[in-house]
Every structure is written in C-alpha cells, then in structure tokens.
Design goal:
The protein is α+β, with helices and mostly antiparallel strands. The protein folds into 2 domains: about 100 residues, Arc Repressor Mutant, subunit A (Orthogonal Bundle); about 150 residues, Regulatory factor, effector binding domain (Multidrug-efflux Transporter 1 Regulator Bmrr, Chain A), CATH 3.20.80.10. Strands 1, 2, 3, 4, 5, 6, 7, 8 and 9 form a 9-stranded antiparallel β-sheet that branches. The longest helix is centred in the first third of the chain and has 19 residues. It comes from Metabacillus indicus.
Length: about 280
C-alpha cells in the first residue's frame, strides 16, 4: 500500500478511535503526517465527503444503533455524540435518518447508515491519463488572491464564487490580456495556509511590474507532473482530480511536494465538450 494511502487510513483510524471526543482537524491531519489543507483536499477527493461530514455521519450512525439497541435516553446520547442540546441532536438525526430519535427506539425502523471507511487503491483506470513531467524554475504570477477556510468544505463553495466575481467584473479578461509569462492561460493556484486556511489565486503568468489593483507572488521551482484535461468545466476538472488521487498517485512512485498546485485554463469555451485545460502538480520521489 502506498505510504500516502496508509497515511489517510491512519487518520481515519484516529477519527474512529476518538469519535466520542472533540476532534480537531489539526490532530486528524497530524495522524496522516500531512498539512490540514492537503489532508482535507485528499480526503474529499478520495471519499466524496468532507472530514466534518464523515464525522457527523458516523456519529449519527452510531447514535441510531445505540438508540435502537439500548435504553439510553435521548438527552444522554445528544451529549455523548457532541451535540449541545437534544433539539440540535434531533434535528441532525432527522436530517440523516428521516425519523426522530424517539421514533428510532421503535422496532423495525430503517436508518441511513454510514460504515467505517477503508481506503482502497484503484489501479484499473479504463481511460489512460495523458501527462508529461517538466522541471521549471520559479516564475511570477499576478492576480486576485483570497483566503478561504477548508473547514466543512467552505473553500469548495467560495472558490467558484470568486471565479464568478472576476468574470463579471472584467478581471478575468484583464488577466488574459496581461498574460505574457512562461505559462499561457488563466491559473487557479491553491496555496496551503496555517491551520485550516488556504490562499487561492486567480492569476496569470506575468513578467513586469505588478499592475495596480492586483497582487503578485512567485511560484516555487518544481518538478511538475502536468495532466491533460479534456471536457466541459467544472465536471472534467473535478473528475481529473479524483482520478489523479485514486488511480495515478498510488501507482506513480511520486508524492506531492507540498507546494501550490495549478489549474491552467485556456481562452476557449470552458463549457465545450472538447475544452482543453491542465492540472499541474509539484511532486517528489
């Protein structure tokens, strides 16, 4: 089993062993020997669930089982599984199971149950992934940067809103006209931050003085694995990320280098079925 798959499994085991305690994302990521940003991103790609969703679903699954097979009171279970009040517990319970906690005590109730996760490697990719490996010196980018929280997948909601904003206010077109650097196209750059934060850039490669109203940064020198992505946004990009982490990384012999990833978007119609874009991942052996 590749070490990073084992690391994610270690984090899952840590969550399960401490399910009735207050779980801090920093401690969970530490169990995987990863930064909070890279752990949460990898976990979401492999499981289609945020860390917070996994914990909530598992706690409510365990609570339903205990309600159905014991005489424990609802108020006791609410506190046991991390809810401040019986009302908040009942609301979450009904959202997952479709019934109230009191109804769960009755015989023949059906629950929505989520089992303990076991991460497995998929090496069966039916469609080949086209990629190339390049070494690049550091290069400069300009653009708009924002800080987002990775907690409960907040970044996944807010990043598309950023792109919508820069398309509507003309910033995207402005970046396209200023794109005079080593990489052609508009980039989405994911930069890990402290704790559960990340910095995200909508940017272009640029050589010259930083234009007014924009920020600039340097992308570190790296060995890059550059994946070709074909298909309409955002589905093609999301599917490519999932295949990279579930199929390519386990068989590649590479590990993520821990520096920013790039998504590179061309000027063509992003909603076309043959739209071309790229994913750049910094790697190390």
């Amino acid at each position: 089993m590749p070490s990073w798959i084992g690391a994610i499994q270690n984090a899952i085991d840590y969550m399960e062993d401490h399910m009735l305690e207050e779980l801090a994302i920093e401690d969970i990521a530490a169990a995987a020997n990863a930064s909070v940003f890279h752990f949460q991103r990898t976990f979401a790609l492999l499981t289609d669930s945020s860390v917070g969703e996994y914990i909530r679903r598992r706690r409510l699954t365990l609570a339903a089982h205990e309600l159905a097979h014991s005489s424990t009171k609802v108020i006791e279970l609410a506190l046991k599984y991390g809810y401040d009040t019986p009302e908040s517990f009942a609301k979450a319970f009904r959202r997952q199971h479709g019934i109230s906690p009191s109804e769960a005590k009755k015989a023949s109730c059906c629950f929505t149950s989520y089992s303990r996760l076991v991460i497995q490697v998929s090496l069966k990719g039916a469609d080949p992934m086209k990629y190339r490996v390049e070494e690049r010196e550091s290069f400069r980018v300009i653009g708009v940067k924002r800080s987002f929280s990775c907690t409960n997948g907040e970044n996944l909601i807010e990043i598309p809103q950023l792109w919508k904003e820069i398309h509507e206010n003309g910033t995207n077109d402005r970046l396209l006209t200023m794109n005079n650097g080593v990489i052609k196209g508009i980039m989405g750059i994911c930069e890990p931050g402290p704790d559960s934060m990340m910095t995200y850039w909508a940017a272009c490669s640029y050589s010259g003085e930083t234009p007014e109203g924009l920020a600039s940064t340097a992308v570190p020198a790296s060995k890059w694995v550059i994946f070709e992505v074909r298909g309409a946004m955002p589905d093609a990009m999301q599917e490519a990320w999932k295949k990279i982490y579930s199929e390519w990384f386990p068989a590649s012999g590479f590990e993520h280098a821990g520096t920013p990833d790039l998504e590179v978007y061309t000027e063509d119609d992003a909603y076309s079925s043959d739209y071309y874009s790229e994913i750049w991942i910094p790697v190390k052996k």
